[in-house]
From TrEMBL:
This is DUF3500 domain-containing protein. InterPro entries: DUF3500 (IPR021889). The lineage of its organism: Bacteria, Bacillati, Actinomycetota, Actinomycetes, Kitasatosporales.
Length: 321
């Protein structure tokens, strides 16, 4: 798996000319830029897909497929394609295009130093960092506008259907007491609360815990967490899931329980934050994100790498002394 990620990144770099490399490549130590992410429309640093040659665009998609699971890559491709649908709905006045997604590289996959990349645009942000053979891929944002396209009341396209349906099924499995704990407000926040902040602000967990759920409902809560982690290839997802403190998860819902009306939910744990919001455009515009408190942008891997480097240097000095 790591070999695939490395090879795909090297392939993309190898297809770039000197000017493109200058635009695309930054230092992995540029913490300000690494942490400056977002999901709103607008330009980004790096190279935009629409300006790349066909083989270069395919190489960017090749990088995504080495990190994303097949179903999540399908979602990401659909989200990117929705930019043309949205542009048509808006009459083209915002000049949206499915090529408006940027790639930026942090370091290179040569040698022993950490490196990574980000692929990002409207409603998509995948942040990857590799250090000492380990891979981090949060924040991971997916959104959709329109979230649902219908024909005579039947769904034609809905790339993020399960994000909503699994949470509704969980509410349906709860007994009345658990549901009262889970639904913490009749009102919805304006957006996901963490937004595009570089750091998650700690907040008191609210909602219902696995211990307060029946066994079927508790299992479905874990399934929801697993679904978000399974945005990554199974090797990465397995590693992430093993880190979860399942006993201390909280699930909360805000807003209406009726379909077609604004709603929001959050799954929160000591090292996990999942947020889902569907409030804009008459509840037809989804924002969702998976984040790790200490591990976003691979900061935990970078810290471990620095500690290991200092230990190695100190050991070398002691041996030579």
């Amino acid at each position: 798996m790591l070999h695939d990620i490395t090879d795909a990144t090297r392939r993309f770099i190898g297809l770039l000319d000197a000017d493109q490399r200058e635009d695309a490549m930054r230092s992995v130590t540029d913490d300000d830029l690494r942490h400056r992410w977002g999901y709103a429309p607008g330009t980004r640093p790096g190279l935009v897909l629409g300006d790349l040659r066909r083989d270069q665009r395919k190489a960017v998609h090749g990088m995504l497929t080495t990190v994303l699971s097949p179903h999540a890559y399908t979602q990401a491709a659909a989200v990117m394609a929705l930019e043309d649908v949205l542009d048509h709905r808006e009459g083209g006045h915002r000049d949206r295009h499915s090529g408006d997604y940027w790639t930026i590289l942090f370091g290179t996959p040569d040698g022993d130093e950490p490196w990574g990349w980000r692929i990002e645009g409207h409603h998509l942000s995948v942040n990857v960092l590799v250090a000492d053979g380990r891979v981090s891929a949060t924040p991971f944002f997916l959104g959709a506008n329109p979230a649902r396209v219908t024909y005579r009341g039947r769904v034609v396209g809905q790339p993020m259907q399960l994000e909503e349906e699994l949470a509704r099924e969980l509410l349906d499995r709860m007994d009345p007491t658990a549901r009262r704990l889970a639904v913490v407000s009749d009102l919805t926040p304006h957006d996901i609360r963490s937004g595009d902040s570089p750091r998650i602000n700690p907040s008191e967990p609210v909602g219902v815990t696995p211990a307060q759920l029946s066994k079927p409902a508790g299992e479905l809560l874990f399934d929801i967490v697993r679904f978000y982690l399974d945005r990554l290839r199974h090797e990465l997802a397995d590693e992430e899931f093993a880190r979860i403190d399942q006993e201390h998860l909280h699930f909360s819902w805000e807003g209406s329980l009726r379909r077609g009306e604004g709603h929001y939910y959050r799954v929160q744990g000591p090292e996990l934050l999942i947020e889902y919001d569907n409030t804009f455009n008459e509840a037809n515009h989804i924002h969702s994100v998976w984040r790790r408190h200490s591990g976003d942008f691979g900061d935990d891997l970078l810290a471990a790498h620095c500690d290991l480097s200092r230990h190695t240097v100190a050991l070398g000095v002691a041996q030579n002394g």
